[in-house]
Amino acid sequence: MSAVETSTLVYRPFTTDDIAAAHALSVEAKWPHRADDWRFVLDAGAGFIAQDGGRVVGTALFWKYGDGGGSLGMVIVAPDCQGKGIGRKLMELLLDALGERITMLHATPAGEPLYARLGFERIGAIHQHQSADFTVPRIDLAQGERLREIEPRDTATLIALASRASGFDRSALLPALLDVARGVVLERDGDVLGFALIREFGRGHAIGPVVSVTHDGQHARRAQALIAHWLAHNEDRFTRIDTPDESGLSAWLGDIGLKRVDTVVKMARNGTPPHDPSVVQFAIVNQALG
């Protein structure tokens, strides 16, 4: 799109030159994102800027997954510019870009009414857990199971598992994550039953996604083993995990010292992401990408 002017405001595409200003805006909003976190999500998608007299006063990004899915996030309006319709205009630009795709977002209580008016419906919740003061739990592997580092030959399998668990095509996002993250798989007899990634994010590190198959009913234990592996490697370091409410993992995370500090509402428009119940996502990538 070309620049669109509304009064003294200009709405235009988000470029890499805007990362520093967007990062400053997120710091003002007390978000933990580093400039590199902004760079990663922008490289994975696209978005828009609201600018007033050369000052960036609003941001919004979106991501497309395959032919039918999408998500949006990083929607911020400068505190002194709120109440002027900037957030709504940015949302309208995002929704025009995403069209009829099944679109997911995570909403704060303050943002939920606006999203509901734009056609989003509540479909779940995400619990944010974090701490540097946690206990590394001992989770025994079942006979024949082992953890190993992710190898290039695993990529196609991990894309398939991540796509089935999230309900979105991860064929572009997962390889991008593997470029910036470390990862392990849990396998048995050569079959990958789950995996977990860890990467630098915000105040420290984030674990996610964490995915496990459900066919034998041991998926929660496997997810705990995958998470425990990375906690052992990250002991005494700030670690964050965002877990879907339906995974049932939140209480366990709290028990080991990863405190729940926030809960956001998961919302969707144009339908619900088609999750495969035989694979569960125990931790998301982040609240923007799901």
From TrEMBL:
SUPFAM superfamilies per UniProt: Acyl-CoA N-acyltransferases (Nat) (SSF55729)
Protein name: N-acetyltransferase GCN5
Any one GO molecular function term: acyltransferase activity, transferring groups other than amino-acyl groups
N-acetyltransferase domain sequence ranges: 9-142
InterPro entries referenced in this protein's UniProt entry, alphabetically: Acyl/Acetyltrans_Enzymes, Acyl_CoA_acyltransferase, GNAT_dom, YitH/HolE_GNAT
Range of residues in the leader sequence: none
Entries under Pfam families matching the protein: Acetyltransf_1, Acetyltransf_18
